[in-house]
Amino acid sequence: METEMNRIAEIARKHGKVQTLVHHINVENLREQHKQMKSGKATGVDRVTKEEYELNLEENLANLVDKMKRQAYKPQEVRRIYIPKDGSKEKRGLGIPAYEDKLVQGVMAKILTAIYEEKFVDVSYGFRPKKSCHDALKKLGRVIEKKKVNYIVDMDIKGFFDNVDHEWMIKFLENDIEDKNFIRIIKRFLKAGILEDGKHIETDQGTPQGGVISPILANVYLHYVLDLWFEKKIKKQNKGECQMVRYADDFVCCFRYLEEAELFYFQLKERLRKFGLEVAENKSKILEFGRFAESNREKRGEGKPGTFDFLGFTHYCSKNKQGWFRVKRKTSRKKQKTKIAKMKIWIRERMHKPLNETIKILNRKLIGHYNYYGITDNSKSINAFYYLTVKQLYKTLKRRTQKHKMNWDKYNKILEYMPITKPRIKVNVY
Q1: Confidence of residue 117 (pLDDT cuts 50, 70, 90)
Q2: Res 405: pLDDT
Q3: Fewer CB within 10 A of the end CB, N or C, for the chain?
């Protein structure tokens, strides 16, 4: 599959448009995609698991490819469930495609990635090979610290994945892909519909919920709606410095002059409206931020510069040990509160489970937390998370039995034999 994807990428690079793609959705590539699928995942409307599909794998794949050759393949509805939304009492919808649809989407996502990876602008970091959230944070830090930046436009698109316009989506894809059969399958995914509480819901807009193909389609959409527009128009119309860093639908724009930041804010609302999108006003703002923000505000008799959140971190103006300006980050209050609440619930649910097993799983959870939030300058937040986790486990063990009361001495002796992983900085964002 890798060789085929490299060939597609080369064609896209040389010729711009790619003509024949659908033949790459073949038995060999679908089989490879099946191997990469994780076991134990929730099932779609077909209720088929990976293990069940594998019982008759070759015949299933042959039948699937045959349907695609006859243009008889039609994606099934996406089963929608609701899960708690981080930091809120609200719930968000999660779509679960049928198993065969996951396989087809997986192969198509790889094909689209091969085509567009050469076309995407460097400001885009979300769901791209060899790019991560930490890379986006590093880039944003370099822009604010090294460039002539005085103002931040912190934007949020209201319900982006639910409001992608299908007609525009297809137009963007057709700009780079000439294979009508390939485009037809994407159209069918977009129009497959949702099954919720036994009722069919039409999908006239938005990307396939929960689908593997959804992130790359979203990137294609924002590549044309936002990235190229910013690079080709906004940068050229401004006299001062202007830079953008985007991760999926979360992005931050940096400007030298306030009037240019304000003009961009207005223009962006108009631009998004054209493509069926809307700015979330309550989550978007312009703030003074950068090397000279604190001194400039002090001269005007104003308070400290404001802060903004990006990718789960609150960014604030500070200084290094030598007294030079530096952007620092800490886990956002909303994320910290949510993560701690989830950890408390999880520990309580395991009150009567074997302690050694609980600590083993707990350490995996903590390591995952440190791997993401353990970045430069954020030691206070991850230490607080560790301390509150240790404290919650102690409280839970105290409640577990009345016979042998738990105290700190006993608890610390237990932790000597079954230590809880301590926090440390894992990523240097400088």
Answers
A1: very high
A2: 78
A3: C
- Quote the crossing angle between the two packed helices 379-400 and 333-349, to the nearest 10°: 20
Q: Could you tell me which residues are beta bridge partners of residue 244?
A: 253
Q: Measured between alpha carbons, how far is 336 from 373 in angstroms, rounded to an integer?
A: 10
Distance between CA atoms of residues 315 and 382, nearest Å = 16
Q: Which helix (H) or strand (E) holds 95?
A: strand 91-96
Q: DSSP secondary structure string, 317-374?
A: EEE-TTS-EEEEEEE-HHHHHHHHHHHHHHHHHTTTS-HHHHHHHHHHHHHHHHHHH-
Lowest mean pLDDT among 118-127, 141-150, 160-169, 402-411: 402-411
Pairing of strands 313-319, 325-331: antiparallel
CA 335, distance to chain mean position in Å, is: 14
Name the burial class of residue 284, with classes exposed (0-12), middle (13-18) and buried (19+) by CB atoms within 10 angstroms of its CB.
Answer: middle
Structure pTM?
Answer: 0.91
CA dist 65 and 102 (Å) reads 14
State residue 87's pLDDT score: 59
The answer to whether residues 236 and 223 touch, using CB atoms and an 8 Å cutoff, is no
Distance CA 54, CA 36 (A): 13
* Angle CA 28–33–34, to nearest 5: 95
Sign of CA dihedral 256, 258, 260, 263: positive
More confident: 92 or 55: 55
CA distance to 15, 35, 135, 147, 169, per residue, from 141 (Å): 36, 39, 10, 10, 32
| 406 phi and psi angles, rounded to 5 deg | -85, 140
Could you write out the DSSP letters of every residue in 20-84?
--GGGSSHHHHHHHHHHSPTTPPP-TT---HHHHHTTHHHHHHHHHHHHHTT---PPPEEEEEEE
Q: What DSSP designation does 303 have?
A: -
Q: Which residues contact residue 410 at a Cβ distance below 8 angstroms, ignoring those fewer than 6 apart?
A: none
Place of tokens 């909303």: 334
Tokens 């085509």 correspond to: 115
Q: In what order do the strands lie in the sheet with 325-331?
A: 308-310, 313-319, 325-331
Rounded to 10 deg, the angle between the 180-190 and 99-116 helix axes is 130
pLDDT at 1: 75
CA–CA separation, 336 vs 318, rounded Å? 21
